[in-house]
Beta-amylase (Thermoanaerobacterium butyriciformans), 534 residues
Amino acid sequence: MASLIFVSSIVTANASVAPNFKVFVMGPLEKVTDFNAFKNQLITLKNNGVYGITTDIWWGYVENAGENQFDWSYYKTYADTVRAAGLKWVPIMSTHACGGNVGDTVNIPIPSWVWTKDTQDNMQYKDEAGNWDNEAVSPWYSGLTQLYNEFYSSFASNFSSYKDIIAKIYISGGPSGELRYPSYNPSHGWTYPGRGSLQCYSKAAITSFQNAMKSKYGTIAAVNSAWGTSLTDFSQISPPTDGDNFFTNGYKTTYGNDFLTWYQSVLTNELANIASVAHSCFDPVFNAPIGAKIAGVHWLYNSPTMPHAAEYCAGYYNYSTLLDQFKASNLAMTFTCLEMDDSNAYVSPYYSAPMTLVHYVANLANNKGIVHNGENALAISNNNQAYVNCANELTGYNFSGFTLLRLSNIVNSYGSVTSEMAPFVINIVTLTPNGTIPVTFTINNATTYYGQNIYIVGSTSDLGNWNTTYARGPASCPNYPTWTITINLLPGEQIQFKAVKIDSSGNIIWEGGSNHTYTVPTSGTGSVTITWQN
Protein backbone atom coordinates (compact mmCIF):
# COMPACT_ATOMS: atom_id res chain seq x y z
CA MET A 1 0.00 0.00 0.00
CA ALA A 2 1.50 3.35 -0.98
CA SER A 3 0.32 6.94 -1.15
CA LEU A 4 1.67 10.45 -1.16
CA ILE A 5 0.95 11.82 2.30
CA PHE A 6 3.08 14.45 3.96
CA VAL A 7 4.06 13.46 7.49
CA SER A 8 4.19 16.56 9.67
CA SER A 9 6.62 17.08 12.48
CA ILE A 10 5.26 15.56 15.69
CA VAL A 11 6.39 16.51 19.17
CA THR A 12 7.02 13.36 21.23
CA ALA A 13 9.27 14.47 24.07
CA ASN A 14 7.75 15.35 27.43
CA ALA A 15 10.85 16.16 29.43
CA SER A 16 10.25 19.90 29.60
CA VAL A 17 6.56 20.11 30.46
CA ALA A 18 5.51 21.02 33.98
CA PRO A 19 5.41 17.95 36.27
CA ASN A 20 1.69 18.48 36.99
CA PHE A 21 0.72 19.08 33.34
CA LYS A 22 -2.93 18.24 32.62
CA VAL A 23 -5.08 18.37 29.49
CA PHE A 24 -8.64 19.71 29.46
CA VAL A 25 -11.32 20.22 26.83
CA MET A 26 -13.90 23.02 26.73
CA GLY A 27 -17.48 21.86 27.03
CA PRO A 28 -20.18 22.97 24.59
CA LEU A 29 -21.54 26.50 24.72
CA GLU A 30 -25.03 25.14 24.11
CA LYS A 31 -27.04 23.49 26.85
CA VAL A 32 -26.73 19.71 26.85
CA THR A 33 -30.09 18.16 25.95
CA ASP A 34 -29.11 14.46 25.83
CA PHE A 35 -27.04 13.59 28.88
CA ASN A 36 -26.61 9.95 27.86
CA ALA A 37 -24.96 11.04 24.61
CA PHE A 38 -22.95 13.63 26.56
CA LYS A 39 -21.72 10.92 28.92
CA ASN A 40 -20.53 8.88 25.94
CA GLN A 41 -18.66 11.92 24.66
CA LEU A 42 -16.98 12.41 28.02
CA ILE A 43 -16.04 8.75 28.29
CA THR A 44 -14.35 9.07 24.91
CA LEU A 45 -12.37 12.03 26.25
CA LYS A 46 -11.39 9.98 29.30
CA ASN A 47 -10.34 7.03 27.15
CA ASN A 48 -8.13 9.33 25.10
CA GLY A 49 -6.24 10.72 28.07
CA VAL A 50 -8.13 13.96 28.74
CA TYR A 51 -8.10 14.90 32.42
CA GLY A 52 -11.11 17.17 32.69
CA ILE A 53 -13.74 19.31 31.03
CA THR A 54 -14.25 23.05 31.48
CA THR A 55 -17.79 24.41 31.69
CA ASP A 56 -19.26 27.89 31.56
CA ILE A 57 -21.53 28.35 34.56
CA TRP A 58 -23.69 30.99 32.96
CA TRP A 59 -24.96 33.69 35.28
CA GLY A 60 -27.67 34.29 32.70
CA TYR A 61 -28.99 30.74 33.26
CA VAL A 62 -28.83 30.22 36.98
CA GLU A 63 -29.91 33.62 38.38
CA ASN A 64 -32.14 34.74 35.56
CA ALA A 65 -35.39 34.82 37.57
CA GLY A 66 -34.21 37.52 39.97
CA GLU A 67 -31.54 38.44 42.46
CA ASN A 68 -30.70 35.50 44.74
CA GLN A 69 -33.21 33.31 42.89
CA PHE A 70 -30.92 30.50 41.76
CA ASP A 71 -31.66 27.37 39.76
CA TRP A 72 -28.73 24.96 39.78
CA SER A 73 -30.59 21.86 38.57
CA TYR A 74 -29.06 21.80 35.09
CA TYR A 75 -25.49 22.12 36.33
CA LYS A 76 -26.00 19.43 39.00
CA THR A 77 -27.07 17.00 36.28
CA TYR A 78 -24.07 18.15 34.27
CA ALA A 79 -21.69 17.58 37.20
CA ASP A 80 -23.21 14.15 37.87
CA THR A 81 -22.50 13.22 34.26
CA VAL A 82 -18.90 14.41 34.47
CA ARG A 83 -18.37 12.38 37.62
CA ALA A 84 -19.94 9.26 36.08
CA ALA A 85 -17.59 9.54 33.11
CA GLY A 86 -14.54 9.68 35.38
CA LEU A 87 -13.40 13.16 34.41
CA LYS A 88 -12.46 16.17 36.50
CA TRP A 89 -14.43 19.40 36.22
CA VAL A 90 -13.42 23.06 35.85
CA PRO A 91 -16.39 25.38 36.44
CA ILE A 92 -15.99 28.86 34.93
CA MET A 93 -18.01 31.45 36.81
CA SER A 94 -19.23 33.11 33.63
CA THR A 95 -20.53 36.49 34.71
CA HIS A 96 -20.26 37.75 31.13
CA ALA A 97 -22.70 37.47 28.25
CA CYS A 98 -22.38 35.00 25.39
CA GLY A 99 -23.11 36.08 21.83
CA GLY A 100 -21.49 38.39 19.32
CA ASN A 101 -17.87 37.34 19.73
CA VAL A 102 -15.82 34.95 17.62
CA GLY A 103 -16.96 31.37 18.21
CA ASP A 104 -20.19 32.28 19.99
CA THR A 105 -23.01 30.02 18.81
CA VAL A 106 -25.66 30.94 21.37
CA ASN A 107 -26.92 34.12 23.01
CA ILE A 108 -26.94 34.20 26.80
CA PRO A 109 -27.32 37.73 28.13
CA ILE A 110 -26.52 38.87 31.63
CA PRO A 111 -29.70 38.59 33.77
CA SER A 112 -31.92 41.54 32.89
CA TRP A 113 -32.56 42.44 36.54
CA VAL A 114 -28.85 43.25 36.94
CA TRP A 115 -29.20 46.36 34.80
CA THR A 116 -31.89 47.77 37.11
CA LYS A 117 -29.41 48.06 39.99
CA ASP A 118 -27.97 51.37 38.78
CA THR A 119 -27.73 53.65 35.76
CA GLN A 120 -26.31 52.61 32.42
CA ASP A 121 -23.54 55.15 32.95
CA ASN A 122 -22.40 53.40 36.13
CA MET A 123 -22.86 49.82 34.96
CA GLN A 124 -21.84 49.61 31.29
CA TYR A 125 -18.85 50.45 29.12
CA LYS A 126 -18.97 53.34 26.66
CA ASP A 127 -16.50 53.50 23.78
CA GLU A 128 -14.93 56.28 21.71
CA ALA A 129 -17.85 56.37 19.28
CA GLY A 130 -20.48 56.46 22.01
CA ASN A 131 -21.47 52.77 21.84
CA TRP A 132 -22.62 51.18 25.07
CA ASP A 133 -21.54 47.60 25.76
CA ASN A 134 -23.32 45.11 28.03
CA GLU A 135 -21.09 42.04 27.58
CA ALA A 136 -20.04 42.37 31.22
CA VAL A 137 -20.79 44.65 34.13
CA SER A 138 -18.44 47.62 34.10
CA PRO A 139 -15.65 47.62 36.70
CA TRP A 140 -16.76 51.14 37.64
CA TYR A 141 -19.97 49.80 39.17
CA SER A 142 -19.58 49.94 42.95
CA GLY A 143 -21.87 46.96 43.58
CA LEU A 144 -19.97 44.54 41.35
CA THR A 145 -18.34 42.47 44.09
CA GLN A 146 -21.63 42.12 45.95
CA LEU A 147 -23.31 40.64 42.86
CA TYR A 148 -20.43 38.24 42.34
CA ASN A 149 -20.35 37.31 46.02
CA GLU A 150 -24.00 36.20 45.84
CA PHE A 151 -23.32 34.14 42.72
CA TYR A 152 -20.11 32.58 44.01
CA SER A 153 -21.54 31.85 47.46
CA SER A 154 -24.57 30.10 46.05
CA PHE A 155 -22.38 27.95 43.81
CA ALA A 156 -20.15 27.00 46.74
CA SER A 157 -23.06 25.95 48.95
CA ASN A 158 -24.79 24.00 46.18
CA PHE A 159 -21.72 22.19 44.84
CA SER A 160 -19.76 21.40 47.99
CA SER A 161 -20.52 17.70 47.47
CA TYR A 162 -18.75 17.85 44.08
CA LYS A 163 -15.39 18.97 45.43
CA ASP A 164 -13.93 15.56 44.56
CA ILE A 165 -14.24 16.31 40.82
CA ILE A 166 -13.52 20.05 40.83
CA ALA A 167 -9.91 20.43 39.68
CA LYS A 168 -9.90 24.24 39.64
CA ILE A 169 -12.30 27.16 39.32
CA TYR A 170 -12.05 30.06 36.90
CA ILE A 171 -13.52 33.51 37.34
CA SER A 172 -14.58 35.80 34.51
CA GLY A 173 -12.97 39.23 34.35
CA GLY A 174 -14.79 40.58 31.32
CA PRO A 175 -15.95 39.75 27.79
CA SER A 176 -15.54 36.12 26.70
CA GLY A 177 -14.52 35.36 30.28
CA GLU A 178 -11.22 37.20 29.80
CA LEU A 179 -9.72 39.97 31.91
CA ARG A 180 -10.02 42.75 29.34
CA TYR A 181 -12.17 45.53 27.99
CA PRO A 182 -14.74 44.77 25.24
CA SER A 183 -12.58 46.68 22.78
CA TYR A 184 -12.97 44.43 19.75
CA ASN A 185 -16.68 43.81 19.49
CA PRO A 186 -17.95 42.94 15.97
CA SER A 187 -21.44 44.18 16.84
CA HIS A 188 -19.96 47.67 17.21
CA GLY A 189 -18.26 47.58 13.83
CA TRP A 190 -14.89 46.08 14.72
CA THR A 191 -13.25 43.88 12.10
CA TYR A 192 -9.95 42.09 12.29
CA PRO A 193 -7.24 43.38 12.45
CA GLY A 194 -8.53 46.75 13.66
CA ARG A 195 -7.19 48.19 16.91
CA GLY A 196 -10.65 48.28 18.49
CA SER A 197 -11.92 51.08 20.71
CA LEU A 198 -11.07 52.46 24.11
CA GLN A 199 -13.91 51.78 26.55
CA CYS A 200 -13.71 54.56 29.14
CA TYR A 201 -16.08 57.30 28.01
CA SER A 202 -18.92 56.90 30.48
CA LYS A 203 -19.18 59.61 33.13
CA ALA A 204 -18.17 57.06 35.75
CA ALA A 205 -15.04 56.16 33.83
CA ILE A 206 -14.05 59.76 33.12
CA THR A 207 -14.54 60.68 36.78
CA SER A 208 -12.38 57.72 37.76
CA PHE A 209 -9.58 58.93 35.49
CA GLN A 210 -9.83 62.47 36.83
CA ASN A 211 -9.71 61.24 40.43
CA ALA A 212 -6.70 59.05 39.69
CA MET A 213 -4.81 62.01 38.29
CA LYS A 214 -5.82 64.15 41.26
CA SER A 215 -4.49 61.44 43.55
CA LYS A 216 -1.22 61.21 41.62
CA TYR A 217 -0.46 64.90 41.05
CA GLY A 218 -2.36 66.73 43.80
CA THR A 219 -2.74 70.00 41.91
CA ILE A 220 -3.73 70.93 38.38
CA ALA A 221 -0.48 72.90 38.14
CA ALA A 222 1.46 69.68 38.66
CA VAL A 223 -0.60 68.02 35.92
CA ASN A 224 0.16 70.88 33.53
CA SER A 225 3.85 70.68 34.34
CA ALA A 226 3.94 66.94 33.63
CA TRP A 227 1.74 67.00 30.54
CA GLY A 228 2.70 70.35 29.03
CA THR A 229 -0.93 71.49 29.14
CA SER A 230 -2.75 74.59 30.42
CA LEU A 231 -5.76 73.07 32.17
CA THR A 232 -7.53 75.08 34.85
CA ASP A 233 -9.42 72.28 36.61
CA PHE A 234 -9.33 68.50 37.01
CA SER A 235 -12.76 68.36 35.38
CA GLN A 236 -11.06 69.19 32.07
CA ILE A 237 -9.07 65.97 32.14
CA SER A 238 -10.45 63.38 29.72
CA PRO A 239 -9.52 60.17 27.91
CA PRO A 240 -8.13 60.64 24.39
CA THR A 241 -10.47 62.62 22.17
CA ASP A 242 -8.86 61.30 18.98
CA GLY A 243 -8.02 57.63 19.36
CA ASP A 244 -6.16 57.19 16.09
CA ASN A 245 -3.94 60.19 16.74
CA PHE A 246 -3.37 59.01 20.30
CA PHE A 247 -2.17 55.58 19.19
CA THR A 248 0.00 57.10 16.50
CA ASN A 249 1.67 59.77 18.63
CA GLY A 250 0.06 60.53 21.97
CA TYR A 251 0.64 57.24 23.76
CA LYS A 252 4.38 58.03 23.98
CA THR A 253 3.81 61.19 26.06
CA THR A 254 3.59 61.48 29.83
CA TYR A 255 -0.16 61.92 29.42
CA GLY A 256 -0.27 58.75 27.31
CA ASN A 257 1.63 56.77 29.93
CA ASP A 258 -0.58 58.11 32.74
CA PHE A 259 -3.74 57.30 30.83
CA LEU A 260 -2.76 53.79 29.79
CA THR A 261 -1.40 52.98 33.24
CA TRP A 262 -4.71 54.05 34.78
CA TYR A 263 -6.71 52.24 32.08
CA GLN A 264 -5.00 48.95 32.89
CA SER A 265 -5.15 49.56 36.64
CA VAL A 266 -8.94 49.52 36.47
CA LEU A 267 -8.71 45.92 35.28
CA THR A 268 -6.13 44.88 37.87
CA ASN A 269 -8.17 46.48 40.65
CA GLU A 270 -11.23 44.59 39.43
CA LEU A 271 -9.23 41.37 39.38
CA ALA A 272 -8.02 41.97 42.93
CA ASN A 273 -11.58 42.54 44.14
CA ILE A 274 -13.26 39.58 42.47
CA ALA A 275 -10.34 37.28 43.31
CA SER A 276 -10.72 38.22 46.97
CA VAL A 277 -14.42 37.32 46.81
CA ALA A 278 -13.66 34.07 45.00
CA HIS A 279 -11.06 32.98 47.55
CA SER A 280 -13.41 33.84 50.38
CA CYS A 281 -16.25 31.78 48.88
CA PHE A 282 -14.37 28.87 47.33
CA ASP A 283 -11.21 28.18 49.35
CA PRO A 284 -12.94 26.85 52.50
CA VAL A 285 -15.21 24.60 50.42
CA PHE A 286 -13.17 23.30 47.49
CA ASN A 287 -9.51 24.00 48.32
CA ALA A 288 -8.92 24.13 44.57
CA PRO A 289 -6.80 26.54 42.52
CA ILE A 290 -8.56 29.64 41.21
CA GLY A 291 -7.62 31.21 37.91
CA ALA A 292 -8.45 33.87 35.34
CA LYS A 293 -7.78 34.28 31.63
CA ILE A 294 -5.85 36.84 29.58
CA ALA A 295 -6.65 37.13 25.89
CA GLY A 296 -3.96 36.77 23.25
CA VAL A 297 -4.41 40.13 21.49
CA HIS A 298 -1.72 39.49 18.92
CA TRP A 299 -2.59 41.76 15.99
CA LEU A 300 -0.89 45.12 15.40
CA TYR A 301 1.89 43.90 17.68
CA ASN A 302 4.52 45.11 15.20
CA SER A 303 2.51 47.84 13.50
CA PRO A 304 4.87 50.54 12.19
CA THR A 305 2.32 53.29 12.88
CA MET A 306 0.52 52.18 16.06
CA PRO A 307 2.34 49.21 17.64
CA HIS A 308 0.43 47.32 20.35
CA ALA A 309 -2.65 49.51 19.87
CA ALA A 310 -5.02 46.52 19.93
CA GLU A 311 -3.48 45.31 23.19
CA TYR A 312 -3.68 48.78 24.72
CA CYS A 313 -7.36 49.16 23.78
CA ALA A 314 -8.06 45.83 25.48
CA GLY A 315 -6.31 47.08 28.63
CA TYR A 316 -2.95 45.33 28.25
CA TYR A 317 -0.38 48.10 28.60
CA ASN A 318 2.18 46.47 30.89
CA TYR A 319 2.05 42.68 31.10
CA SER A 320 4.51 42.62 33.99
CA THR A 321 2.31 44.68 36.32
CA LEU A 322 -0.74 42.82 35.02
CA LEU A 323 0.79 39.51 36.06
CA ASP A 324 1.90 41.00 39.36
CA GLN A 325 -1.78 41.16 40.27
CA PHE A 326 -2.22 37.48 39.40
CA LYS A 327 0.63 36.71 41.78
CA ALA A 328 -0.68 39.00 44.52
CA SER A 329 -4.17 37.50 44.20
CA ASN A 330 -2.87 33.92 44.16
CA LEU A 331 -4.43 33.18 40.78
CA ALA A 332 -3.43 30.82 38.01
CA MET A 333 -3.30 32.44 34.59
CA THR A 334 -4.52 31.08 31.26
CA PHE A 335 -3.26 32.59 28.01
CA THR A 336 -4.66 31.98 24.55
CA CYS A 337 -3.47 31.68 20.91
CA LEU A 338 -0.86 28.94 21.43
CA GLU A 339 -1.79 27.41 18.07
CA MET A 340 -0.71 30.44 16.02
CA ASP A 341 2.60 31.43 14.47
CA ASP A 342 4.34 34.67 13.54
CA SER A 343 4.00 34.32 9.76
CA ASN A 344 2.17 37.66 9.56
CA ALA A 345 4.41 39.47 12.02
CA TYR A 346 5.48 42.04 9.43
CA VAL A 347 2.66 41.66 6.91
CA SER A 348 0.24 44.57 6.47
CA PRO A 349 -2.39 45.08 7.78
CA TYR A 350 -1.98 42.33 10.39
CA TYR A 351 1.44 42.78 11.98
CA SER A 352 0.39 39.80 14.08
CA ALA A 353 2.94 38.12 16.38
CA PRO A 354 1.08 35.62 18.56
CA MET A 355 4.04 33.30 19.07
CA THR A 356 6.25 36.16 20.21
CA LEU A 357 3.49 37.31 22.55
CA VAL A 358 3.02 33.84 24.04
CA HIS A 359 6.75 33.57 24.68
CA TYR A 360 6.87 36.97 26.33
CA VAL A 361 3.92 36.39 28.66
CA ALA A 362 4.95 32.82 29.52
CA ASN A 363 8.47 33.94 30.41
CA LEU A 364 7.03 36.63 32.67
CA ALA A 365 4.80 34.07 34.36
CA ASN A 366 7.73 31.72 34.88
CA ASN A 367 9.88 34.49 36.32
CA LYS A 368 7.14 35.53 38.73
CA GLY A 369 6.28 31.97 39.77
CA ILE A 370 2.74 32.09 38.37
CA VAL A 371 1.07 28.84 37.39
CA HIS A 372 0.10 29.30 33.75
CA ASN A 373 -2.02 27.34 31.32
CA GLY A 374 -2.59 27.55 27.58
CA GLU A 375 -5.48 27.46 25.12
CA ASN A 376 -5.96 27.70 21.39
CA ALA A 377 -7.78 30.90 20.45
CA LEU A 378 -9.66 29.52 17.44
CA ALA A 379 -11.00 26.05 16.73
CA ILE A 380 -8.43 23.85 14.97
CA SER A 381 -9.54 21.96 11.88
CA ASN A 382 -7.34 19.93 9.53
CA ASN A 383 -4.25 21.81 10.64
CA ASN A 384 -1.70 19.53 12.24
CA GLN A 385 0.84 22.35 12.45
CA ALA A 386 -1.48 24.18 14.84
CA TYR A 387 -1.28 21.22 17.27
CA VAL A 388 2.49 21.10 16.80
CA ASN A 389 2.67 24.83 17.59
CA CYS A 390 0.70 24.26 20.78
CA ALA A 391 2.96 21.38 21.80
CA ASN A 392 6.09 23.42 21.17
CA GLU A 393 4.83 26.20 23.41
CA LEU A 394 3.70 23.77 26.11
CA THR A 395 7.02 21.93 26.22
CA GLY A 396 9.19 25.02 25.94
CA TYR A 397 7.61 27.39 28.45
CA ASN A 398 6.61 25.29 31.47
CA PHE A 399 2.85 25.45 30.98
CA SER A 400 0.94 23.51 33.64
CA GLY A 401 -1.97 22.61 31.42
CA PHE A 402 -3.74 23.01 28.12
CA THR A 403 -7.42 23.39 27.28
CA LEU A 404 -8.65 22.59 23.80
CA LEU A 405 -11.37 24.61 22.13
CA ARG A 406 -13.77 22.64 21.87
CA LEU A 407 -15.43 19.25 22.60
CA SER A 408 -17.31 19.04 19.29
CA ASN A 409 -14.06 19.35 17.34
CA ILE A 410 -12.69 16.03 18.56
CA VAL A 411 -15.80 14.00 19.51
CA ASN A 412 -18.97 13.54 17.48
CA SER A 413 -22.39 14.06 19.03
CA TYR A 414 -22.78 10.29 19.50
CA GLY A 415 -19.40 9.83 21.17
CA SER A 416 -17.03 8.66 18.41
CA VAL A 417 -13.76 10.45 17.73
CA THR A 418 -13.40 12.83 14.80
CA SER A 419 -10.32 13.08 12.62
CA GLU A 420 -9.07 15.84 14.94
CA MET A 421 -8.64 13.49 17.91
CA ALA A 422 -5.45 11.80 16.66
CA PRO A 423 -3.33 14.95 16.18
CA PHE A 424 -4.68 16.36 19.44
CA VAL A 425 -3.71 13.25 21.40
CA ILE A 426 -0.39 12.71 19.64
CA ASN A 427 0.83 16.26 20.03
CA ILE A 428 -0.71 17.34 23.33
CA VAL A 429 -2.23 14.57 25.46
CA THR A 430 0.91 12.43 25.28
CA LEU A 431 2.86 15.29 26.85
CA THR A 432 1.18 14.48 30.17
CA PRO A 433 4.12 13.16 32.21
CA ASN A 434 2.12 11.08 34.69
CA GLY A 435 -0.80 10.19 32.45
CA THR A 436 0.95 8.15 29.76
CA ILE A 437 3.22 5.14 29.55
CA PRO A 438 6.45 5.27 27.52
CA VAL A 439 6.49 2.22 25.27
CA THR A 440 9.62 1.37 23.27
CA PHE A 441 9.03 -0.24 19.87
CA THR A 442 11.89 -2.22 18.33
CA ILE A 443 11.59 -3.09 14.64
CA ASN A 444 14.10 -5.67 13.41
CA ASN A 445 15.23 -6.28 9.84
CA ALA A 446 13.64 -3.10 8.44
CA THR A 447 15.87 -2.31 5.47
CA THR A 448 15.53 1.14 3.90
CA TYR A 449 17.10 3.28 1.22
CA TYR A 450 18.54 6.76 1.71
CA GLY A 451 15.83 9.24 2.78
CA GLN A 452 13.45 6.51 3.96
CA ASN A 453 12.56 6.09 7.64
CA ILE A 454 10.48 3.84 9.87
CA TYR A 455 7.30 5.00 11.59
CA ILE A 456 4.58 3.38 13.71
CA VAL A 457 0.86 3.80 13.02
CA GLY A 458 -2.06 2.07 14.70
CA SER A 459 -5.63 1.75 15.84
CA THR A 460 -5.78 4.35 18.61
CA SER A 461 -5.67 8.14 18.66
CA ASP A 462 -2.18 8.19 20.10
CA LEU A 463 -1.06 6.09 17.12
CA GLY A 464 -2.93 8.12 14.52
CA ASN A 465 -6.10 6.00 14.06
CA TRP A 466 -4.39 4.32 11.07
CA ASN A 467 -3.91 7.71 9.41
CA THR A 468 -0.32 7.85 8.18
CA THR A 469 -0.43 11.64 8.30
CA TYR A 470 -0.06 11.15 12.06
CA ALA A 471 2.31 8.17 12.03
CA ARG A 472 4.69 8.31 14.99
CA GLY A 473 8.33 8.77 14.23
CA PRO A 474 10.76 8.69 12.68
CA ALA A 475 12.39 5.88 14.63
CA SER A 476 16.12 6.01 15.34
CA CYS A 477 18.53 3.47 13.92
CA PRO A 478 21.54 2.92 16.17
CA ASN A 479 22.15 -0.60 14.77
CA TYR A 480 20.90 -0.86 11.17
CA PRO A 481 18.58 -2.50 10.18
CA THR A 482 17.15 -2.46 13.72
CA TRP A 483 15.04 0.62 14.54
CA THR A 484 13.70 1.87 17.86
CA ILE A 485 11.21 4.50 18.92
CA THR A 486 9.67 5.31 22.31
CA ILE A 487 6.09 6.58 22.19
CA ASN A 488 3.96 7.80 25.08
CA LEU A 489 0.72 5.79 25.06
CA LEU A 490 -2.36 5.73 27.26
CA PRO A 491 -2.15 3.22 30.11
CA GLY A 492 -4.02 -0.06 29.73
CA GLU A 493 -5.19 0.49 26.16
CA GLN A 494 -5.21 -2.37 23.71
CA ILE A 495 -3.59 -1.38 20.44
CA GLN A 496 -3.14 -2.79 16.98
CA PHE A 497 -0.25 -1.39 14.98
CA LYS A 498 2.08 -1.73 12.04
CA ALA A 499 5.40 -0.29 11.01
CA VAL A 500 5.55 1.77 7.82
CA LYS A 501 8.38 3.08 5.67
CA ILE A 502 8.03 6.70 4.57
CA ASP A 503 10.50 8.57 2.40
CA SER A 504 11.16 12.30 2.07
CA SER A 505 8.59 12.59 -0.73
CA GLY A 506 5.84 11.06 1.40
CA ASN A 507 5.81 7.66 -0.35
CA ILE A 508 4.58 4.99 2.05
CA ILE A 509 5.26 1.25 2.20
CA TRP A 510 3.20 -0.68 4.70
CA GLU A 511 4.53 -3.67 6.57
CA GLY A 512 2.96 -6.93 5.33
CA GLY A 513 1.08 -9.55 7.30
CA SER A 514 -1.49 -9.14 10.06
CA ASN A 515 -1.69 -6.25 12.48
CA HIS A 516 0.43 -6.54 15.60
CA THR A 517 -1.39 -6.38 18.94
CA TYR A 518 -0.19 -5.10 22.30
CA THR A 519 -1.65 -4.07 25.64
CA VAL A 520 -0.04 -1.01 27.19
CA PRO A 521 0.91 -1.50 30.87
CA THR A 522 -1.01 0.50 33.46
CA SER A 523 2.19 1.72 35.11
CA GLY A 524 5.92 1.87 34.55
CA THR A 525 7.20 1.40 31.01
CA GLY A 526 6.51 -0.96 28.15
CA SER A 527 8.35 -2.55 25.24
CA VAL A 528 7.43 -4.53 22.18
CA THR A 529 9.66 -6.09 19.50
CA ILE A 530 8.62 -7.04 15.98
CA THR A 531 10.34 -8.14 12.79
CA TRP A 532 9.51 -6.28 9.60
CA GLN A 533 7.31 -8.36 7.34
CA ASN A 534 7.48 -7.84 3.59
In short: The mean pLDDT is 95. The longest helix spans residues 254-286.
